[in-house]
Every structure is written in structure tokens, then in C-alpha cells.
């Protein structure tokens, strides 16, 4: 298992974010109700590195050719966006279910719970927009994850503040690790592009910056959980291990289904 420090090794690059809080728009369920005849995966319709033809421009002003992604790489991005959207849905629902019980017993945690929820809501909106823009099929497990996340949030909050924070620690450890894997993968493409005298498309660069920023905010939530006695939950090890195992299973399923 990756340590928290290992998740922080990649350098930070921040992108701009919406300035006002966002709430659920539940874009994905509307996608699921639509007929998939209109679905176009980025595997067939590349959105990054469409062309490297610069032959019509003067040699002195010719920019670096764009790095053209392979079908396998475009499939990877489809899968990444599908998993990320599902993960952010789950995170928002977990916090939504936990907050009433946690702040009832610990009113001083209201600002922290709202802060973490608001960030997750922005993340969810960002991936809703990416899913729609690139016409990526959301996971078919969406309704299942909705129920599972709500039950997880409610049940851990019912166990007490420490258990709720342990849930956050477990979830954010897995999510942060997964985002870090995505960042490393795209950075490997960037290194390959540079070795060939090419560069990533601007949209893919922006996506890389977005993944990094969201990863860092997820790891901040992990820090908040530990600072608020996540490790005092009882039983700590079984609880955290089961939640992490469930997160890994949900990620693997959402990548394919």
C-alpha cells in the first residue's frame, strides 16, 4: 500500500476553479436514462492531439507538434473520467449522510464538514462537465454507488465522530492513491512526448493540472480526518480495511462497467 507521503511526490500545478459553491446537478443519472445510441467514446473520437500537421506554417514559427494519443491511451482517459465521476459522487453522498449526525453531537465540526462537502461538490461538477464534454459513458453502477455511499456515510456517523473520520481517512487514502496513479500515467505520456520533440495538447495539460489539484484537496481531507481522531475509532483496523477494500473494488468495477 502506498503511504500518504508517497502520494504527495508529484509537483503541484493548480488550475482555476469556480468561485461559487456548487451543488448536485446529477448529470450522470440523466445520461443513464438516455439512449446510448448517441454515445461516442474518446476511444473512437480523440479530443487530445488531433493533428500534428504543421507543414503549412513557416519553419521559424512552427510550434512543437502535438503528441497524438493511441487508442489505448484514449481508452485509459475514458476509464479515468468514469471512475473519477463515480468516486466524487460517492464522496459527496458520504459527507451529506454523515454531516447531520456528526454536527448534532459536535457542532464545532460544522464548518469543516461543510468545507469538505463543498470541495467534493465542486469536484463532482468538474467531472460531470468532463464526462459530458468528451461524451464518456458513466458507470452503469451509478445507482448502486449512490445507495452504498449513503449507507456508508450514515452508518459510520452513527458509530460516532471517530468512525466517521476513519471513513474519510480510508476513502481519501484510496482516492488520493488513484488520482496519483492517473497523474503519473499522464506525466509518463508527457515525458514520451518530450523525448520525441512533441508536447501534450493544452486540454490534456489542463486535465493533468485538474487531477493534481483534486488529488491534493482529497489528501487535505485525509489530514483533517486524522487530526480529528480518525485513528481513535473502534474497531479501527477492521473498519478502515473493509472500507478501503470496498473502494478498490468499486474503482475496478467502475473502470469496466
Automatic annotation (TrEMBL):
GO terms for cellular component: extrinsic component of mitochondrial inner membrane. One of its GO terms (molecular function) is metal ion binding. It is found in: Mitochondrion inner membrane. Its main location: mitochondrion. Pathway: Cofactor biosynthesis; ubiquinone biosynthesis. Its cofactor is Fe cation. It is an enzyme of class 1 (oxidoreductase). Its EC number is 1.14.99.60. Fe cation 1 binds at residues 88, 120, 123, 218. Transmembrane segments: none annotated. It is a peripheral membrane protein. Binds 2 iron ions per subunit. One of its GO terms (biological process) is ubiquinone biosynthetic process. Keywords: Iron, Membrane, Metal-binding, Mitochondrion, Mitochondrion inner membrane, Monooxygenase, Oxidoreductase, Ubiquinone, Ubiquinone biosynthesis. Gene3D superfamilies: 1.20.1260.10. It catalyses: a 5-methoxy-2-methyl-3-(all-trans-polyprenyl)benzene-1,4-diol + AH2 + O2 = a 3-demethylubiquinol + A + H2O. Fe cation 2 binds at residues 120, 172, 218, 221. It holds the Pfam family COQ7. Belongs to the COQ7 family. Catalyzes the hydroxylation of 2-polyprenyl-3-methyl-6-methoxy-1,4-benzoquinol (DMQH2) during ubiquinone biosynthesis. Has also a structural role in the COQ enzyme complex, stabilizing other COQ polypeptides. Component of a multi-subunit COQ enzyme complex, composed of at least COQ3, COQ4, COQ5, COQ6, COQ7 and COQ9. This is 5-demethoxyubiquinone hydroxylase, mitochondrial. It comes from Aspergillus coremiiformis. The gene is COQ7.
Amino acid at each position: 500500500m502506498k503511504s500518504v507521503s508517497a502520494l504527495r511526490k508529484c509537483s503541484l500545478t493548480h488550475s482555476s476553479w469556480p468561485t461559487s459553491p456548487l451543488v448536485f446537478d446529477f448529470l450522470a443519472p440523466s445520461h443513464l436514462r438516455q439512449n446510448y445510441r448517441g454515445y461516442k467514446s474518446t476511444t473512437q473520437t480523440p479530443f487530445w492531439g488531433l493533428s500534428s500537421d504543421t507543414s503549412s506554417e513557416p519553419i521559424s514559427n512552427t510550434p512543437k507538434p502535438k503528441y497524438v494519443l493511441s487508442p489505448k491511451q484514449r481508452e485509459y482517459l475514458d476509464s479515468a473520467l468514469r471512475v473519477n465521476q463515480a468516486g466524487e459522487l460517492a464522496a459527496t453522498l458520504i459527507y451529506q449522510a454523515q454531516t447531520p449526525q456528526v454536527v448534532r453531537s459536535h457542532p464545532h465540526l460544522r464548518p469543516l464538514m461543510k468545507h469538505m462537502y463543498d470541495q467534493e461538490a465542486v469536484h463532482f461538477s468538474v467531472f460531470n462537465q468532463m464526462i459530458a464534454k468528451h461524451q464518456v459513458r458513466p458507470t452503469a453502477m451509478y445507482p448502486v454507488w449512490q445507495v452504498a455511499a449513503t449507507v456508508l456515510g450514515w452508518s459510520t456517523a452513527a458509530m460516532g465522530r471517530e468512525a466517521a473520520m476513519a471513513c474519510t481517512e480510508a476513502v481519501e487514502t484510496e482516492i488520493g492513491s488513484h488520482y496519483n496513479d492517473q497523474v503519473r500515467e499522464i506525466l509518463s505520456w508527457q515525458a514520451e512526448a518530450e523525448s520525441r520533440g512533441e508536447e501534450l495538447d493544452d486540454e490534456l495539460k489542463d486535465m493533468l493540472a485538474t487531477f493534481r489539484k483534486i488529488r491534493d484537496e482529497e489528501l487535505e481531507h485525509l489530514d483533517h480526518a486524522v487530526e480529528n481522531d480518525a485513528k481513535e475509532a473502534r474497531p479501527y483496523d477492521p473498519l478502515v480495511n473493509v472500507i478501503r477494500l470496498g473502494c478498490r473494488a468499486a474503482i475496478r468495477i467502475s473502470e469496466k462497467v
